[in-house]
Design brief:
This protein is of the alpha/beta class. The chain has helices at residues 5-16, 20-27, 31-37, 51-61, 73-77, 93-110, 134-145, 167-175, 190-195, 213-230, 249-258, 278-284, 297-301, 333-339, 373-378, 380-391, 398-401, and strands at residues 114-115, 123-128, 149-154, 180-185, 202-207, 238-242, 265-269, 290-293, 306-309, 345-347, 403-404. It has three domains: 5-71; 88-210 and 381-404, 3-Layer(aba) Sandwich (Rossmann fold), CATH 3.40.50; 214-377, Rossmann fold (3-Layer(aba) Sandwich). Bound molecules: aspartic acid (ASP).
């Protein structure tokens, strides 16, 4: 180093326009250590920064093309300098658009036309302490499709948490085994706690009734894709959210993301006691968006562009309220036909409860082109590939990594898919 260590580090802080705290987090060291590197060489307490750290700064934090710092999507969504995805609060409108551009670049892979190996050698820890089918499998499949491998654990019973191990210990230990983790846990805030014990990226796969950021990203990506086919724009559109809006974490994250758009009319309709929390309604009441609590489903459905139905999260009830979700809350073909437009889309994060008497989203819409739920679930793969590529800093390598696939698949994935194939 021609300049002193102190000058070098201060120039990094200046060029990246970040605080010392953020630089420490990016380097994975505590502030005291960084402070000792920032002292003058003849001061008491001065420590020499390891060569590996200097190399990391030059290779990963500074762009070596003159003094220009390359815009990095990973940096713009970082949380306290760390590359976790814990909440949709980490996005603004620009980073969201950039995120969707990366997602678009993953489409040839999720459609099984191309393969990529940009995550070859990397290992994902898929840690699910709560029930999951789609989220767990699609995160795993997304990682494998980028060339990585997956290790997972499901439920408390088969993990050392059943022996009383803390979130901190579990996280620190897992961080030594894998390169990135997806964590689902029944307590709100638990995934953030998990992320504080490790410098490797942690993705929130659902923290109790808190948030489900990857689901909201794929929901919004679905709305964006369907709207572009229908020639509509998200700004100024009408959305209704129906069902358990209190415990449904997907609607919490989605409502927050929608608030980044302008002039939306959002209607909410839920059984008494299962209303959307006030803090989320207040968060989303910006940019000229209008949020309205409806007193009947028919009123909420009138002329909307998007119907978003959710399952009642009985597993989170203190006292099960079996009767709270009656026919008045059910989205079915007759309600959609009588109140909605030809180009309305019907969404649901799934699973839907199809048991008799459940009154969740009806299966009588299965052959209606407006039902977007399976196209929505399919979008989980490119969205989750984008999350991994961005958090691990390889999103810029995708285009040059694509190769043709060697195998072939049936033309339609599902037996009812042929009418949708043109979409
Ligand atoms: N799969 C979604 C979630 O994990 C929705 C649900 O379970 O109802 O939140």
């Amino acid at each position: 180093m021609i300049i002193s260590q102190q000058e070098f580090l201060f120039s990094v802080i200046k060029k990246l326009n970040i605080t010392k705290n953020i630089l420490a987090a990016k380097l994975g060291v505590n502030l005291c250590t960084l402070d000792s590197w920032l002292l003058q060489e003849d001061s008491i307490g001065f420590l020499r920064m390891p060569g590996a750290i200097e190399a990391f700064i030059s290779k990963h934090l500074l762009c070596n093309t003159g003094n220009v710092i390359k815009y990095s999507l990973r940096d713009s969504i970082a949380i306290n300098g760390k590359n976790h995805l814990l909440s949709v609060d980490q996005f603004n409108r620009d980073s969201l658009e950039d995120f969707f551009r990366v997602t678009d670049s993953m489409k040839p892979i999720s459609r099984r036309q191309k393969v990529s190996r940009i995550l070859e050698g990397a290992v994902l820890g898929n840690l699910f302490f709560e029930a999951s089918t789609r989220t767990r499998v699609s995160f795993g499949a997304a990682f494998c499709r980028l060339g990585g491998s997956v290790c997972d654990t499901t439920g408390f019973t088969f993990s050392s948490m059943a022996k009383g191990e803390s979130i901190y210990d579990t996280s620190r230990v897992m961080g030594g085994y894998v390169d990135i983790m997806v964590v689902r846990h029944p307590e709100q805030g638990s995934v953030a706690e998990f992320s504080s014990a490790t410098n490797i990226p942690v993705v929130n796969g659902g923290d109790g009734p808190g948030e489900h950021p990857s689901q909201a990203l794929l929901d919004l990506y679905t709305i964006r894709t369907e709207f572009s086919r229908l020639g509509k724009s998200i700004d100024g559109s009408c959305v209704v959210m129906v069902g358990d809006l209190k415990y449904g974490r997907t609607v919490h994250s989605l409502l927050k993301l929608l608030s980044l758009y302008k002039g939306l009319k959002i209607s909410l309709f839920s059984p008494p006691g299962l209303e959307m929390p006030d803090n989320i309604v207040n968060y989303a009441s910006v940019n000229g968006n209008h949020i309205d609590i409806k007193s009947s489903l028919e009123e909420g459905l009138d002329g909307v562009d998007v119907v978003y139905a959710t399952r009642v999260q009985k597993e989170r009830f203190e006292n099960p309220m079996d009767e709270c979700f009656d026919k008045r809350f059910q989205i079915d073909l007759s309600k959609i036909n009588s109140k909605c437009k030809k180009d309305t889309i019907v969404m649901h994060p799934l699973p839907r409860d199809s048991r008799p008497g459940a009154n969740d989203l009806s299966t009588d819409l299965n052959n209606d082109i407006r039902l977007a739920i399976f196209r929505q679930a399919d979008n989980g793969i490119p969205v989750r590939m984008a999350i991994f590529a961005i958090l691990l800093g390889v999103d810029h390598l995708i285009d040059n990594s694509l190769k043709d696939v060697q195998w072939s698949l049936p033309a339609y994935i599902g037996p009812d898919d042929s009418p949708f194939y043109c979409l």
